[in-house]
Structure formats: structure tokens, C-alpha cells
Amino acid sequence: MASDQMNDVTVIASQAREFISSGHFADRIQGVVENDPWSKESLDRCESFFLNHGYTFDDQLKYEYMLFLGEGLRRRFNGEWRQETFTIDDSGQTVDALCIYYPQSEHYDAVTNLLDHARDEASGTWWSDFYTVNQLFFDSLTTA
């Protein structure tokens, strides 16, 4: 994704909302089920297309996939777009990540690397599994 696109989380959040609300995502995210874009079926179809063709994606299309996945998490689990810096090991090394923050659980999901995780796992179900784990987690908060 283009680095200038990652600079302002307010702009990114606005772009994500508009990308989904306008319906433009249905023309850009191959395999999406338009009336249920973050269902297991839809996410698996999108991921399958990404695994088979993602190596040809330009930075803009990768960015749009990230917007699609992040905005789905935000909407489904009442999150907020955030840009955060995380310390990743005892050496103090840090990494910047675009995230969805969930105030109700005070945790983050980094959306910056969802494409890489799917590619590394290559299961074709990583995105839907990720959503399912989040759903189970948030369900456990309401039953605790």
C-alpha cells in the first residue's frame, strides 16, 4: 500500500466507510458476496481469489482489500480505526500498524498485515477463521 495513504487514520477511516457504503467494494473485491460481504462464504471466496491472483495486485488494490477487511472488523465488532506503534520484542523494536481498536475489550487487530497472513497461511480460510475467532471472543465477553 502506498505510504502516503497510511499517514492519516482519519482519512483512512473515511475512505474505508465510503468504499463500503458506496458499494464500490463489490466492483473491486473479487469473490465478494455483495449482500453479506463478511460472511464465511464471502471471505473465503475473496481470499481464494487473492491467493490465486494477489501477486498481480497493484498497491491501490491491496489497499482496497485492507480497507474492506478492516472496515468489516470495525462494523461487525464495534471498533475504531487507529494507527498504533507496538513494541514487538524485548529489544524494544517497534512497528507501526493500522489497526481496529475495540474499546469494549481494549484490544487491537492489526489490519496492515491481514493480506500477508493469508498469503503465509495459504489455507484459503484465514480471513474467515480470523473473523470467527473474533466472534467467539466477543461472544465470550457477553456471557462472562
Structural commentary:
The chain has 144 residues and is an alpha+beta fold. Helices cover 53% and strands 15% of the residues. The chain is globular, with a radius of gyration of 15 Å. It starts with 8 loop residues before the first helix and ends with a helix.
Task: Give the topology, please.
Elements: H1 9-21, H2 25-28, H3 40-53, H4 59-77, E1 80-87, E2 94-102, E3 107-110, H5 114-121, H6 126-143
Antiparallel strand pairs: 1-2, 2-3
Gist?
This protein is an alpha+beta fold.
Shape: globular
Query: How many H/I helical runs?
Result: 6
Given helix and strand content, the structural type is: alpha+beta
N-to-C terminal Cα separation, in Å?
A: 39 Å
What is the number of beta strands?
3
Q: Which oligomerization state do the chains in this entry correspond to?
A: single chain
- Please provide the ordered H/E string of secondary-structure elements: HHHHEEEHH
**Major β-sheet annotation:** 3 strands, antiparallel
Query: What is the CA-atom radius of gyration, in angstroms?
Result: 15 Å
Mean pLDDT: 92
Low-confidence stretches: none
List keywords for this structure.
144 residues, alpha+beta
